[in-house]
Amino acid sequence: MAGTFTLSVVTPERQALQTEAEMIIVRGGDGDLGVLRNHIPLVTSIKPSILVIKRPEGEDRLAVTGGFLEVRGDAVTVLARTAERREEIDAARAREAKQRAEERLQESKAEIDDARAKLALLRANVRLQLVEGGAHSPV
Question: Model's pTM, two decimal places?
């Protein structure tokens, strides 16, 4: 690959990760986005997805539930609502959240409840994908 850059993944509660990365892949507001060293400056929203981090030592993955991505020089910052490693996710709880969201979508009458249920379903699916080792794409 073309060298490394500094990657910081930050949530309101903590700094989830700080590392040198060769490449990251995440779902941006306009689709999947890959970032390599010397990427043009960029600020974009990110959707709930799997953040794939390719490092010289191997690959890491985090479930991120939305936020923003900033690329500036050789530094990339992900400001996420949440960022969780596979071992931090309670699979049973994620399955229950998915089931609740699906039930709410079936019985929802208010538009705002429908949007909240869709977002909850998406977050649960991202967590389960990371835990269950699903597809290799960000989502």
Answer: 0.77
Q: Which residues of 60-86 are buried (b: 16+ CB within 10 A; e: fewer)?
A: bbbbbbbbebebeeeebbbbbebbbee
Q: What is the pLDDT of residues 7-51, one digit of tens each?
A: 999 999 999 999 999 999 999 988 999 999 999 999 999 999 999
Would you state the structure tokens that stand for residue 24, as one six-digit string? 């990251």
Pairwise CA distance, residues 88 & 63, whole Å: 10
Strands 5-10 and 75-80: parallel
Report CA torsion sign: 53, 139, 125, 64: positive
The CATH code that applies to domain 5-86 is: 2.60.15.10
Element (DSSP H or E) covering residue 29: none
Q: Answer yes or no: are the C-beta atoms of 46 and 64 closer than 8 Å.
A: yes
Q: Which CATH number among 1.20.5.440, 1.20.1440.20, 3.40.50.300, 3.50.50.60 corresponds to the domain 90-132?
A: 1.20.5.440
